């Protein structure tokens, strides 16, 4: 292309040196001149003598051919190759020159701007992904909360059903004994009075225990269950429990046998550990058939004192043993203490730094065992 006017030559030179303007001069399909911006954006592929079509993406080749063949100045949007980065659209003004060459003049988006837009897109995509994950997490938390409320409602209904059943049973028994006294044709004998009084007291004790369990479970759930440690003999506690439940065992036709090794001194809350042992022994009596034996064993076990209560019942399947210490669990659906006794026992033993579990007994029944630390790291005997 002949350039004769000094101003035109200066403008052409400025465009060739531009870092922003894409200037291509094409003669018969080959590049004769390319601006610095072309070389910077596209690379060495824009060297003179190169086929201009190699600078453009395949989908723009047909449009490029039309632009180079067009006989009047016109704007064309073409897809320019980006070395190692795919392609980008550039709008070119294509001007036919007098010597038959074509001048292609365009301006690609500033690289910094393109990078900024790309980074902003990545940031936005990441933020949207984080929001989506957070929404999913919150959704899962809400679902878990909903399930928890449903479970709590189910437990509430179950507790109300159990408590009302157990309280009604005790009240009915008390009412029955009162009715026997009221309608007796003659004054009861001393033996009859003792029997009636024993039944009345046992049902009152049962209702008291039920109410105490409900209150203790509420304290345990709130983290307010407390112990008052002092040194005492766990053997004395076991003896007191056996004396307490002797009449219950006799009525059930169950024999109680102790196998205690000495005093077994511990530092703990005697009232609370009495509660644990009483619960285990009453459960053992309740789940043993008539004529069976409940064995209560107490021994030093290394640096801990171990107490076990074994019943003569059918036992507990291994896969069900962990669940018996949960709230509202009632073995075999048989009446007990609202399914709270073992739950409270586990919490009391934990407050003493001990552990409680259930295993298979030597005679096929269930053996409940708890251990707590002995004073000074050794069980006193």
Would you kindly provide a written description of the structure presented here, covering whatever features stand out?
The chain has about 375 residues and is α+β, with helices and mostly antiparallel strands. It has 3 domains: about 5-110, 2-Layer Sandwich (Beta-Lactamase), CATH 3.30.450.20; about 115-220, Orthogonal Bundle (Helix Hairpins); about 230-375, Histidine kinase-like ATPase, C-terminal domain (Heat Shock Protein 90). Helices cover about 45% and strands about 20% of the residues. It contains 8 helices and 12 strands.
- Total strands: 12
Sheet/helix structural class: alpha+beta
For the termini, the CA-CA separation is: 116 Å
Secondary-structure element pattern, one letter each: HEEHHEEEHHEHEEHEEHEE
CATH domain class of the largest domain: Alpha Beta
Measured by DSSP, the beta-strand proportion falls in 15-25%
Q: SSE layout and pairings?
A:
Elements: H1 6-17, E1 21-27, E2 30-34, H2 36-42, H3 61-69, E3 74-82, E4 86-96, E5 102-107, H4 111-182, H5 190-221, E6 230-233, H6 234-252, E7 255-260, E8 265-268, H7 270-286, E9 293-301, E10 304-310, H8 341-351, E11 355-360, E12 366-373
Parallel strand pairs: 7-9
Antiparallel strand pairs: 1-2, 1-5, 3-4, 4-5, 6-8, 9-10, 10-12, 11-12
Helix pairs in contact: 4-5, 5-8, 6-7, 7-8
């Amino acid at each position: 292309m002949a350039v004769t006017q000094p101003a035109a030559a200066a403008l052409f030179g400025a465009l060739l040196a531009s870092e922003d303007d894409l200037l291509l001069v094409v003669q018969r399909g080959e590049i004769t001149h390319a601006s610095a911006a072309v070389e910077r954006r596209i690379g060495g592929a824009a060297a003179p003598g190169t086929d201009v079509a190699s600078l453009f993406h395949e989908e723009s080749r047909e449009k490029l051919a039309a632009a180079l063949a067009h006989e009047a100045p016109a704007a064309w949007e073409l897809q320019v190759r980006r070395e190692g980065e795919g392609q980008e659209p550039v709008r070119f003004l294509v001007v036919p020159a007098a010597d038959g060459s074509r001048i292609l003049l365009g301006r690609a988006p500033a690289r910094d701007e393109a990078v900024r837009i790309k980074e902003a897109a990545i940031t936005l995509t990441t933020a949207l992904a984080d929001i989506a994950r957070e929404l999913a997490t919150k959704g899962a938390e809400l679902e878990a909360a909903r399930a928890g409320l449903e479970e709590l409602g189910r437990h509430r209904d179950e507790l109300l059903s159990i408590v009302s059943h157990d309280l009604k049973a005790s009240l009915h028994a008390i009412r029955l004994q009162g009715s026997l006294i009221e309608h007796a044709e003659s004054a009861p004998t001393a033996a009859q009075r003792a029997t009636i009084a024993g039944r009345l007291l046992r049902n009152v004790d049962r209702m008291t225990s039920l109410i105490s369990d409900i209150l203790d479970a509420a304290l345990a759930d709130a983290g307010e269950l407390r112990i008052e440690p002092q040194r005492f003999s766990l053997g004395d506690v076991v003896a007191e429990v056996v004396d307490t439940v002797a009449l219950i065992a006799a009525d059930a036709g169950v024999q109680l046998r102790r196998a205690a090794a000495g005093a077994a001194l511990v530092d703990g809350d005697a009232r609370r550990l009495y509660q644990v042992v009483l619960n285990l022994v009453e459960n053992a009596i309740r789940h043993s058939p008539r004529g069976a034996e409940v064995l209560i064993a107490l021994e030093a076990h290394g640096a801990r004192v171990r107490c076990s209560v074994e019943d003569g019942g059918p036992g507990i399947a291994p896969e069900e043993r962990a669940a018996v210490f949960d709230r509202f669990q009632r073995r075999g659906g048989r009446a007990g203490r609202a399914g709270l006794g073992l739950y409270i026992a586990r919490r009391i033993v934990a407050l003493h730094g001990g552990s409680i579990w259930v295993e298979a007994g030597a005679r096929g029944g269930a053996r409940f065992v708890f251990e707590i630390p002995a004073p000074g790291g050794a069980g006193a005997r």
